[in-house]
Specification:
about 100 residues; 3 helices; about 25% helix; Rev_trsase/Diguanyl_cyclase; Retrovirus-related Pol polyprotein from transposon 412; DNA/RNA_pol_sf
Length: about 100
Amino acid sequence: MCIDYRQLNQKLVKDKFPLPLIEDVLDTLQEAKVYSTLDLRNGFFHVDVDEDWRKYTSFIAPDGQFEFNKVPFGLSTSPGVFQRYVSSIFRDLTGKGEL
């Protein structure tokens, strides 16, 4: 299912949370001794949408009207919201050469 959020995106206040640049990430990892990977596929679906804002994500399907409980793909604010979520989880490791 693909939902067209273009009209909603025009009205949203842009999330200015900085996304990391790949060059900066690679520079940080250059001196690392241990590496690990995380699969962040469908990562947006692990971040809750505030209950008051869920109505704005609603859509109609053959079985009825639905709204997202988790951050959907397609919203212009989703990448910043997700990055803020990930950064908060790893807050204690960043900047110490551990992440």
